């Protein structure tokens, strides 16, 4: 086990056509996982990842299993055991697979359904998400309370970066009223992690209840409570509640670093979004990222593995 090292797994937004191709070329375990994903889902997700089109990969029901697949392919190719894991939104499923709490085949089917339920919860164009740069949490909460519309804080990503989600016009009003230095509408197909996702949460609970969970062999810090999870029941419940509630990433990382003595964080999967957030959360923590053979080799050297 890697002492004082955490593995973190990305969420939606890190996808790109061609991701994972280099891993498949260099690691048989990654190639086998792509085949297993296609078999579990009953359609060629691996081809969409490799060839696109980008519009197909951006469909939430494809994006979510695609990111989980590439993340676990990178994790298995890396073949190291961290002291603790965490995942951002969808990435919590990847983290639970890495922790031995959830089987890969179950996880990829669950996130495919999760993506579909979240997409179907709100008609296209009705909802929106805005990243608010430079706004204080209290000011955002005050703007939400004053507006009274269907909008919530969806992501506490890092100090100075908070995301809101909800009904489009209400979200736009809150974004304008909260004192943000910049408000950026995100290119997403639905408003995730807000009250409009409650129907998706209800549907997903039934699927989660039907899947076997184990106690995590590696401790996990979850999104919805920003707390350490060590039982199967807590892992399952956390996945259900996070659908319509905020991702408390800043707190989760701060609690994890302090409680576990974390000195290095490895982002396992496509992109470097979480590495960028970590730079804003705690600059003292070493940041590594693994999404291809070269970055994997560099991470192993950096970790002394």
What is the alpha-carbon Rg in Å? 18 Å
Give the oligomeric state of the chains in this entry, treating copies of one chain as homo and distinct chains as hetero: single chain
Main pleated sheet: 6 strands, mixed
What's the overall average pLDDT, rounded? 96
Number of E-type strands: 10
User: Per the principal axes of the C-alpha atoms, what is the gross shape?
Assistant: globular
Proportion of helical residues: 40-55%
Unreliable sequence segments: none
Q: What is the string of SSEs from the N terminus onward?
A: EHHHHHEHHEHEEHEHEEHHEHEH
Look at the helices and sheets and give the structural class: alpha/beta
Portion in beta strands? 15-25%
Distance between the termini: 10 Å
Read across the widest sheet, the strand sequence of neighbours is 8-7-2-1-9-10
Count of alpha and pi helical runs? 14
Please describe what this structure looks like.
With 305 residues, the protein is of the alpha/beta class. It has 14 helices and ten strands. The strands form two sheets. Strands 8-7-2-1-9-10 form a six-stranded mixed β-sheet, with helices on both faces. A four-stranded antiparallel β-sheet has the order 4-5-3-6. The protein is globular. The relative contact order is 0.18.
Main attributes?
alpha/beta; globular
Would you summarize the structure shown here?
Helices cover 50% and strands 18% of the residues. It has helices at 21-26, 28-41, 45-51, 54-58, 60-78, 91-98, 104-121, 137-147, 168-177, 198-209, 232-241, 249-260, 273-281, 293-303; strands spanning 2-9, 82-87, 127-133, 151-158, 161-167, 182-185, 220-221, 228-229, 264-268, 286-290.
């Amino acid at each position: 086990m890697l002492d004082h090292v955490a593995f973190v797994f990305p969420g939606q937004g890190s996808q790109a056509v061609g991701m994972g191709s280099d891993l498949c070329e260099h690691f048989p375990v990654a190639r086998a996982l792509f085949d297993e994903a296609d078999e579990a889902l009953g359609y060629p997700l691996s081809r969409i990842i490799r060839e696109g089109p980008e519009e197909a990969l951006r469909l939430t029901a494809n994006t979510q299993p695609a990111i989980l697949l590439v993340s676990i392919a990178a994790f298995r190719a890396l073949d190291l055991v961290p002291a603790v894991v965490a995942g951002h939104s969808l990435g919590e499923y990847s983290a639970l697979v890495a922790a031995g709490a959830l089987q890969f085949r179950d996880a990829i089917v669950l996130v495919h359904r999760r993506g579909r339920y979240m997409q179907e919860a709100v008609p296209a164009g009705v909802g929106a998400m805005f990243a608010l740069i430079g706004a204080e949490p209290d000011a955002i909460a005050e703007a939400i309370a004053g507006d009274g519309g269907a909008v919530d804080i969806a992501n506490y990503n890092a100090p100075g970066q908070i995301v809101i989600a909800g009904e489009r016009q209400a979200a736009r009003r809150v974004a304008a009223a909260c004192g943000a230095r910049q408000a950026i509408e995100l290119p997403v197909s639905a408003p995730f992690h807000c009250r409009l996702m409650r129907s998706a949460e209800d549907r997903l609970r039934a699927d989660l209840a039907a899947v076997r969970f184990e106690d995590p062999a590696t401790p996990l810090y979850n999104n919805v409570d920003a707390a350490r999870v060590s039982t199967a029941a807590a892992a399952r419940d956390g996945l259900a509640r996070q659908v319509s509630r905020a991702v408390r990433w800043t707190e989760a990382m701060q609690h994890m670093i302090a409680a576990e003595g974390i000195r290095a964080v490895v982002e396992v999967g496509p992109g470097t979004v979480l590495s960028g957030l970590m730079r804003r959360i705690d600059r003292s923590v070493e940041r590594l990222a693994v999404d291809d053979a070269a970055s994997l080799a560099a991470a192993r050297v950096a970790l002394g593995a």
